[in-house]
Structures are given as C-alpha cells and as structure tokens.
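Now for a typical sample entry:
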Amino acid sequence: MMEKQEAEALAVVHIRPLQASEEERQAAVRALAAVFRQYARAEG
C-alpha cells in the first residue's frame, strides 16, 4: 500500500512533469522504488 506522500509525489510528476521541481522528481523516484520493492517482496 502506498503512503499518502508517495502517492502525492507520483501525482505531481505525472500531472505536471515539466513544472515539477528536481526535488519533486526525486521524491517520485523514491516513491516508485518503494512500490517496486514492496511488489518484489509480495511476489517472493
């Protein structure tokens, strides 16, 4: 389950990628990485 801040970070970069700051992009990358790690654990 994604945390609220991770979902918001992804939403910002998805909705307005050109206006997203580098900090927002980094937050989205970290959020995606966390989601993939959780998925990988679930898959075993």
In short: The helical segments are 4-15, 22-43. The chain is about 75% helix and 0% strand.
